[in-house]
Amino acid sequence: MRLLVSTLLAGLCAACLPSPRGHCASDADCKGGPAGLFCADQVCQSPPMFHANVPRAVGQRADVVAVRVQVTSAHGGPALATGVLEAGGTALPAVREASATLRFDVPLALAPAGTEGTLPLHVTIADDLGHQSALDDALSYDDAPPALALVPDAAWHGRADLAVHATVRDLTLDESSVRLAVGGASLAPSASSGADRTFTVPLSALPAGAEGPVPLSLTASDQLGHQGFATGQLLLDDKPPRASLDPASVPSAAVVRGSVVALRVLVDDASPLQVTSSLAGHPATMARQIDARTFEVSFDSSTLEPEKAQAALSIRIVDAAGNTTPIPVSLDVTRLKWHVPLTNPSTLKGMSLDNTLVVVTTDDAQLYRFAKSAGAPVTPVNLRATTTGAPVTSGTISYIALTDNSVCKVGTTVHWCCGPFGTLDSPMAFGPMQSSTGLSDTILVGSTGDPNAGGQRLFAVREDSQDSSVCHFFASSPVRSFEQTAPAIALDSTILMTLADSIVAARFDGFSWTTQINTFLNHSYSGFPALGLPGLQGQPLIAGTGTGFVEEAIFPISSDPSALPGNPVAGAGFSTSVASASFAASGATIAADGTIIVGTDDHRLVALDAMGHQKWQLGLNGKPSGPPTQGAGGVAYAADATGTLTAVNVADGSVRWTFAAAGALKVPPALGCDGTLYLGSDDGSVYALVSDSLGLADSPWPRLGRDNRGTGDARRKLRGPDGSCLD
To answer: How far apart are CA 198 and CA 14, in angstroms?
Structure first.
């Protein structure tokens, strides 16, 4: 309140006035004193001075409030003072109650209806000369119910004690009347700060099993009898999601390893859902939401541990309130992509891969072929005799040796056959060799039998460059009996073979042979040789013996490309016993890290390092079919006579997984660039499995016969310049 006051006492502010006694002749003489002084009766005087009594209680709009003004001084005396009060745009006259007291009757109806707050007052008091003093004040009124609001809460809640927040505003609020009604309970605030109120809703107030909005009602009254009301809701979810698998999305058969299964989860819940899936020991992944009621869970079977044949998948559905529904899923996982029986079940002799087909020879007079992709049989090719061993392929054409001692070129039909060549009972090699027109695809094979009848010789067989229905062959002089051995073509085109007591090195110049025999009377080589990567000393040849040894001989590399290599380097190589003398060691294969692995007749795999030191050994269920096929990624695949395929970690000899075929596995597995492992079984079937390797190992000799085509040719690339696999 602002009140203009002055004094008429001349001596009160003598230092401020022209006259020490306050005398004046005009208003100008009073300017040195307090503001508002004026000159009257030759004395400096102040405007009226007064006190106002404004009630502080909050009134209703129907009330009339008396505001009293006590005038303490005014020119002419308080009894001559007059006044006016302005409120709500209305000027209200004063009622004189006594000589110095004025009363103003202020109706609160001047305030806006339906509101609460303050009604501004402006009081003016004037003396008999018209000099004025004024003050501003206000009256409080309440013509509105309490203003209530529940703070919106968009979150979903589970059935547990929870907090509800609200705001409550009123000038005359009755705090004891503030109540929140929920689920039949009436709750007082548990905390308040200014207009903010917090209500703690106990579990007992929430309906069990509810799923959806729960109504809230907030009420409060003020001291004048006005009542306020507000409504809201809680999103309550006290039910776990209803969820199930769509039966149509669940595989009816075992899942082929490497494939991705899309399981559809059907859900029903009032609140938003999150669906995750996890494989034991693996992090959870989010499901893809298809629509409001359907989620898709993807399971990549390649993430399953190699040895496991069953995936324990956990699907977890969680609603916005934290309620959870688990769906355990058990999926059988198989490595078997396809399994195809032969038309006439027979004992398998060999298996090779061409660009699109699996080519199989058996002990009957047919050549069987299957599509690599799905195992679809291709019409067999009838042969004029049974086969002696594994086919060799060029990628589109197969070459086979028959028991009538001939060599045939076979596509969809038999193109030609050459022979007879003594007695043929060993595998062949295949690759480009010198001819009259340059390099030509040539079959290399050794024979046994009577030397006078073509036995104990080496033969080079190739097609006529002018007439594709005609073949030519070139025979060496008698050398040795080439029984159960296979030619191996070195990088320098030297042809190396292990015999019972010797190693034969040979060259073919397109027309004639030159041969070199290195005899080792204390040796008894068995199986097929493997060629290591040439080093400073020369070309390594690795072979097993019938007395349980693995031996490496290193032949010097001649500077003359047409010359024979000469005798093995003295003192080079190694000779390591891997089995007792009564058990033979098969030929070897070489892993990408240089590990040499052989099979032994006492049912073991034995691994050696590049120096011939044993790294590890592993027992198998039966006699191995030979050395394992080496796959990319450091995994070797060993087949045995019990029909068991064993996948082995090359680093330490630990078993990754096994597969059981219905019959003995006697031919080396073939391994495609897409990771498919092909097995031929004596139950007369071909199996295609999912391996852990994308193709053969990038090594000098990863498979018996060197590659999937059985070429025995170390010159043939198994990997492209960028490291990509070449079938």
So the answer is: 64
